[in-house]
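Bumping with the actual sequence this time:
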Amino acid sequence: MLWFIGRRAAIAVPTLVAISFIIFAILDLAPGDPTSHLPLTIPREVREQIRESMGVNDPFLVKWLLWVKQVMIHEPISLIEQLFNVQIGSGERTRVISWQSRGPVVETIAERLPQTTWVMGLAFVFGILIAVPVGVISAYKQYSVFDQIGTFVSMVGYSVPTFFTGLLAIVIFSVKLGWFPSYYDTTLEVTDWSSFVAQIKQIVLPVGVLSMFNAAALSRFTRSSMLDNLSEDYVRTARSKGLKEKRVLVRHVLRNSLIPVVTLIALQVPGIFAGALITEQIFRINGIGHLLISSIHGGDIPMVQTLSFLIAALTVLFNLVADVVYGMLDPRIRYD
């Protein structure tokens, strides 16, 4: 297992380097200037000096190699120093600087990350907790009333975009009924019971909207995988041995059916940030999605490059996690 993880990690490094090159090349060709937000009264000579100091006029390969060094080496070291209050080396290292805030990009991302992981992470977990049981029961009771209702709800939940369901939820539950707030207050601090209740109320709508969307696709995928395995010979053999139906369903069928489902779940984890792009705009959550949209609108190329690379790195990481989980679910899989 350790040899397999090490081998996959060794493959992931050149993969991430190639991804970083593509991301940096595409965004470097995009129009953008670090002096575009400065006052128009600043002379052209001063603007040119600012561009030179920030390395904008350097050759492409020089800029890319410096950015890779900053993102893969300097920024992780700086993050470790801040988290554990230690100093590694001399402490003098170049950072990826945002063109809008003029501060380190990773520090801005670290400030916005808790809001995204709190809301979108809960939606992802609840989506899995809803989708897997619904998919299992729908497959076991195929064509039943439960299956028909589950199919209809999942089709509607997956077909309707989140910006429509989000606005609909705000109109119904915030404007009409007044049960929940229509926006997410990122400045709220949980210090007592009333603030805790306020925190729960403001996450209900965004978490509910995203949970329904995530559960819709995953439940249909789980149902399809369960149906494929319910007709296999090993299921009939397990039943002929006198095993209880619950044990056959959970221990044998579900365990094998979860192998392709794990792949979908692993690939959906980076999708948390993709879902945040729309949902955070609707509910005004000051998270990663809102940061990415504002950076694109403001032409903050270093921020967009770093966020895009972060999502790509999460995709590579959770593909590795999915491969490791395969061996836990199916003992026939060997990594030697």
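The tokens above came from a reply further down the thread. The chain has a mean pLDDT of 78.
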